[in-house]
Amino acid sequence: MDIKQVQELIKLVSKSSLSELTIEEGDFKITLKQKEDVVPQAYVSAPVMAAPVAVAPAPSAVPAAAPVASTPAASAAEDTSKYITIKSPMIGTFYRKPSPDKPLYVEVGDEIVPGKVVCIIEAMKLFNEIESEVKGRVVKVLVEDQSPVEYDQPLFLVDPS
Asked: In the β-sheet with 147-149, what is the strand arrangement from edge to edge?
């Protein structure tokens, strides 16, 4: 087999859907392998924003854009920068209590410590207890009970002082 025949085989394999071609003639053997385009697959879901999360940035942007005399809305927007946000570590359904007949894990005003369960997120029929990593007082619950949450979505605002 000469070089022109090998070149023709290479063209043939590259144009076809073959991934590998092996030819043997006596003591001569040639194997042509086509490069496989490995495309990494990334699964990205569109973020679903809860109403309180979508509304929260708007009040803080409005006072910054237009200087206004101190109002309750402006002071509330300033106070949120002092809070620590507990975020969802996964995608799933947010639950504030362990079962319908049990009390809420935490309510606004409750003191929490690291390791205290603050909610449950159900993902693929598994109920995952979400524990606080901070110490403080719960100021606001940002997600409604039994609503879907996305990864890294804010769930609670905590005052660390």
From this structure: 126-131, 117-123, 92-95, 147-149
Q: pTM here? A: 0.51
* Residues whose CB is less than 8 angstroms from the CB of residue 159 and which lie 6 or more positions away in sequence, other chains included: 82, 83, 84, 136, 137, 139
**Structure tokens, 9:** 């085989």
What is the chain's length?
161
Report the distance separating Cα 17 and Cα 34, nearest Å: 9
Instruction: Give the phi and the psi of residue 60 in degrees, each rounded to 5.
Output: -70, -30
Q: Identify whether 29 is part of a domain.
A: yes
Whether 63 is covered by a domain: the verdict is: no
- For 24-73, how does the pLDDT look when each residue is reduced to its tens digit (9 = 90+)? 878 878 887 776 655 555 555 555 555 554 444 444 444 444 444 444 55
CA-wise closest residue to 138 among 99, 115, 105, 102: 105
Query: What is the number of structural domains in the chain?
Result: 2
Asked if the structure places residue 49 within a domain, the reply is no
Assigned domain for 41 exists: no
Residue 116 lies in domain: 82-159
